[in-house]
Amino acid sequence: MADIIDEIKSMDLKTSWLGDWEFEVLTPKDRLAATLSYLKAKGFKAFMGLSCVDWIEEGNFELVYILQSYDLALEAIVKTKIPRQRPVIESMGTLWKLCEVYEREMHEFFGIEFTGNPNLKPFFLENWLDIPPLRKDFDTLAFSEELFEFKEDETHGIKSPKRIE
Amino acid sequence: MSEWTEIVDYFRGRSMWMLHYCTGCGAIELPPTMTSRWDMERFGITPMATPRQADILLITGYLAIKTLKRVVYTYEQMQAPKWVLGFGSCTINGGIYWDSYNVIESLDKYIPVDIYIAGCMPRPEAILDAFVKLKEMVQKGEAKGYEKYVKNYDWYKANQDRVLKRTSPVLKEIEKVTKIG
Lengths: 165, 181
What we know:
The structure holds two protein chains of two kinds. By secondary structure, chain A is an alpha/beta fold. Chain A has four helices and seven strands. Chain B has one domain: Rossmann fold. Chain B has a five-stranded parallel beta sheet. In chain B, helix 2 links the parallel strand 1 and strand 2. The interface between A and B is large, with 38 and 35 residues.
């Protein structure tokens, strides 16, 4: 299993062990598909999940793909960074169909555009019109105060009738 | 109050069927309440499968915007007289989700709540206490949340629409965000 790490290193990608049974691979955006399909061919057939980290200070979103290999008993964590201002990346639905579901979620909660994913409809949120809620610049407290903790007379487009006790 | 109403209220308090809307983690307290350890059927309260046959709507925990819509549907399907129990601190003020973007703060703004059960979680004893209290209130003719809903229908509807039928962003800084394309 150490030879996988050596091979990845020879491909000029940064990689390191995170523990006894997992390692991470840092890959640029344009080599993501190649890295993932290489790992899939090497035995990391199970796609476990996709998550996203908002590095607001450096202006990046970091996408984290988690793969597992049951034969090697190893976990591979593939990370790639995309610019926050223009978060577009290709869909990995051709490698794992399941990935499209995670991409739909990331699209909803971070506003990332996945080219090639046919189904980026709203998923969990209902009638959402604000900026994606898991971005760091979304002020969840201000949103909550504005929408839920309103005073009884205060209205937002809807005229509130007088309450009869 | 006529004598007939008093008699009706007396019997209403002795046979209440409950619909439990298990949105949050509070649902885990209900199986011991229903089954032999605490056995709420002693008080004439039994779980019911459909909203149209139920008298009590028990909201067990936090309500997201999505579930609030379903709760309003369910509440309006129930036939009067009907009573709502708000269970846990989430229904009172949002609980630990007080600053969440997706969880409502106070249930009483959207449907009339007769009794709140405080706690996170309330124990089965607290639930039974609330049932007994509700029973007393019903028998005295005090629990009139459903009448309040009819009288203040416009107020409740306006509050519901404000959350469920938003037409513009809540926060006004949307131009900061870069749109693609």
